[in-house]
Amino acid sequence: MPNSSPVRKKRPSVRRKSSEKFGQRRLEVRNAKIKDIRGIADLVRRVYEDMPAYTHGEIRGQINNFREGCFVALLDDEVVGYCATMQVAEALAFQDHDWDEITGNGYGSRHDPTGDWLYGYEMCVDPKVRGVRIGRRLYEERRALAEEKDLTGIVFAGRMPNYRRYRRRVEGPQDYLEKVVEGKLHDPVLRFQLANGFEPERIIEGYLPEDKASMANAVMMVWRNPYVERDQPVKKRLPRGVEAVRVATCQLQARAVADYAEFMRAIEYFIDVASDYEADFIVFPELFTLMLLSFEEKELSPVEAIERLSEYTPRLRSDISDMAMRYNINIIAGSHPTRMEDGDIHNVAYVCLRDGSVHAQEKIHPTPNERYWWNIKGGDKVEVIQTDCGPIGVQICYDSEFPELSRRLADEGARIIFVPFCTDSRQGYLRVRYCGQARAIENQCFVVLSGNVGNLPNVANMDIQYAQSCILTPCDFPFARDGIAAEASENVETLTISDINLADLSWARAEGTVRNLADRRFDLYRIEWDEDGKHPGKPRPRREPLGPKHPGGG
Q: Which among 49, 73, 103, 549 counts the fewest CB atoms within 10 Å?
């Protein structure tokens, strides 16, 4: 039986994350960070003027999915070089594929921590920066990473940008490659890769249709780790580690309050309790601020009510952010009607982190009732939010029923998706519940639901409510038997708390019974987002819905 264990050779010490001075200029090479996204996007636009640029969401996904494999070079704090890499299995790396397929539409979401090869899918250097060997330094970082992880080697599909210029002098891309190797033709990219120790394996046709200069062709380039020799491919195993996060979901009872201060005391109570239990997150229901209408002198019309609630936005955001810092807990503050700069009212979830930062996620799909009775407009952007427990996503109620939104969040690296909801009936609740469970399975992530219960006098929008808040998991061996980490009793006010292990997600995505993220058919279907995930949107018709004037969620 062939021996598949690695054979070690003496390995030299590897210098990593270098920082040097060139005259008065300082060059630093390190792993990419979320704060580098804008600089990376600007660099890619400068380098590839004739090809589509990355969206910020794609770069965010590349970093979140495998930060160890993403490197930036900064000259005087300006991004002048970037490379992105992921681990993949040998079978995937060496089979026929295109760039979209291998990278998961550019997000790097097909990173496999059990893969034995590094796959490079981006390398760019500012053409204005000469003489400091940025590209060589980035390649050195890749090689050092492969050696550090005892991987078999590095593979990537390299561009051949002079091919179109010389296509009439050669008999095809293979002939062009051979002539470049022999020195009969010049290709700056291929010559650079050859000089850095990479060997051409074969031509990949149709790799990147947008690459007009290469006429969509690429050369599979390979570097084999000299410190590891194997007789056959090896599948690495992912240790079952522990990355514990404690989450709390508040099933909130609607109650009449005398004023804003009393409402905030009720909210602060649950934040205090969750903090005492050392929870990392607490999530409140959608439109939990409707209680603020209970002390109005008269019952307001739906449009008047939403207008009145929007007046509380600055104060609410400030007070909850203050509590997040004081109680050392990340707060997903349900959702709240907010007037935007263009005058429209949006349904917005404010995420107040314990470091003092405040993020907002708008509801993308208002329900028919929201659009008709309250004239609420949908947002146009969905993206993950970086927290001290990793990237998370928020989907407000109805949004959880549109799987492409959760998939976008998972591609960007989200491992927990919070779903504040507001439903009046069991049917509405179950729509949200079943879709939340489906999103957990599809994206191999945790989904946390939080809903309102009870009713409010003098508030037409809160006639009745139905909820059973819960913390849902994928359905596989490391998780709860029924895919439910914890759930509240129906229609009672309570706080439900559970520990979840984010490391179980990494294991399930790499070695689970099913691997929904890895097994997508990118050769058959994909979702296209424009820059930063923003679409201009079209006006939605305000058709009169059936039923009373309530959110009608789910």
A: 49
Answer yes or no: 534 catalytic: no
Q: What is the pLDDT of residues 470-483, one digit of tens each?
A: 999 999 999 999 99
Cα–Cα distance between 365 and 379 in angstroms, integer?
Answer: 8
Under 8 Å between Cβ of 338 and 348: yes
Return contacts of 103-107, CB within 8 angstroms, 24+ apart: 104/61, 104/411, 104/517, 104/520, 104/522, 105/58, 105/411, 105/522, 105/526, 105/527, 106/54, 106/55, 106/58, 106/61, 106/62, 107/57, 107/58, 107/61, 107/62, 107/65, 107/411, 107/412
Catalytic pick among 83, 352, 389, 397: 397
**Amino acid (one-letter) located at 414:** A
> How far apart, in whole angstroms, are the C-alpha atoms of residue 289 and residue 268?
13
For the chain, the helix, strand and coil percentages under 3-state DSSP, each to the nearest 5: 30, 25, 45
286 is catalytic: yes
Q: How far apart are CA 453 and CA 517, in angstroms?
A: 35
Contact 299, 459 (CB under 8 A): yes
What is the separation, in whole angstroms, between the first and last Cα of the chain?
A: 57
Q: Is 389 a catalytic residue?
A: no
List 363, 422, 435, 470, catalytic entry: 363
For the four alpha carbons of 438, 409, 329 and 421, in that order, the dihedral sign comes to negative
Which of 140, 286, 383, 487 is catalytic? The answer is 286
Q: Do 439 and 415 meet the contact criterion of CB atoms below 8 Å apart?
A: no
| pLDDT 10s digits, 363-379 | 999 999 899 988 999 99
pTM: 0.91
